[in-house]
Predict the structure.
Amino acid sequence: MIIHDFSKENSLLNQFIREVRDTSIQKDSMRFRRNVERIGEILSYEMSKTLEYKAKSVTTPLGLKTVNIPNSEIVLCSILRAGIPLHQGILNYFDGVENAFVSAYRYHPNGGDAFEVNVKYLASPSIEGKTLILADPMLATGKTLENVLRALESHGTPKQIHIISIIGAKPGIELTDMIFPKNTHLWIAAVDNALNERGYIVPGLGDAGDLCYGPRLD
């Protein structure tokens, strides 16, 4: 897997990452969602530099001009709930893509720390031969992405996979590297070292879905 870790660079992205981590700023759910969206926009722009392009002519009021535009069929798949504002940020820049959504959540069968990832809903067009973008804000254990990849198998084999995440933990990134094709690209704004006993990123930012939309109702 090809990892693009933007925490190693100085950019405006760091400001938005600081804000989504800050417990005092997190209280404003609208601002939290907007920051997630802006992070998605920035990572999308960076990702766009690696796509295939084609030349196309455009008619201006004074003549013709040839410009290079993306030449990839793209399917954007987001993991609910926290993936919604990240999806919108990507969609702001890739407004012509096809869209897919998957509901994947942690299930603690015995009420303890151990959990399974359940995929309950998937709506996706064919991804055969296309560029697949997976939007998963928090790459913690990597189990969610593993299950989503399996769920999408019946929809075809993509030509290229890009994963866009806000924050990831090293153990989850290592598992993802083992599972996904070697030419997969991971675009990530920050990488933390550890997970706690319940599989949450430390220091991370907490539960992104709850911060976006309030506690999940079981």
